[in-house]
Amino acid sequence: MNKRSLKLIISIILVLSYVHLKAQTKVKGFNKDQGEPSTSQLTNESKFLDQKLLELNKKIEDVINKYKLLSLKKIQILPYRIKYRLGEDYIEIDTYKFNRDVLVDNRITGIQQKRIRIYMSGSILSKIESKITEKTYDIESVVTVNIIDPSPVVLGSDDVIFDFITGKLKFIEKKKMGDIRNNQEQPIKNSIKRDFLLPHYTFCYKTILNIGETYFKSIKNVDKAMSDFLLKSQEY
Prior knowledge:
By secondary structure, the protein is α+β, with helices and mostly antiparallel strands. It contains 3 helices and 7 strands. The chain is about 40% helix and about 30% strand. α2 (about 40-65) packs parallel to α3 (about 190-230). The longest helix is centred in the C-terminal third of the chain and has 45 residues, at about 190-230. It is globular. The termini are far apart.
């Protein structure tokens, strides 16, 4: 078996493992002893999660406007492992985590990366783009999921779009949240909302809040230092 065939087989195994994991996900509040959730329970949870996502995205919008983050050109203090970039109408946040082999000198075997780009149209949060990537160096594997939320401050998430790519193979392309399975056996849509989107957007909110608060706190500290210096000058 050549190297290319081996990589393809490994990629397919990764995809099948992902699908299997999602298929096993249970709706919050249910377990095998309680039985499977009903269709109405799934629908109600889906609506509840949509409301939580809307509230969270509104908080992201409020932070950007409160601290005028789109106008701050020089952000010097950032949270650990965060890269920050400002575009004409967007803020981009990057974070990463190295995978290591603890049995072999703690060497780096891969990297997990997350990129979030937050678009504003005036004072309105107009779009959120995310890119989740995992690279495994030994087998030269790259798995990527791209997500586009075209209306983050409108109630409902059925228009969120997903691409699922392993290497050069596109297993999912431009699939909308509304088309993702959400039945009693496989409540995958609710799982993605609850176990990915909510934590993902919470991370985004906490990160930009930290950046905004830290920036303005540093300005106050500098102003205070200048004031103290000027007051001291009255002594001579």
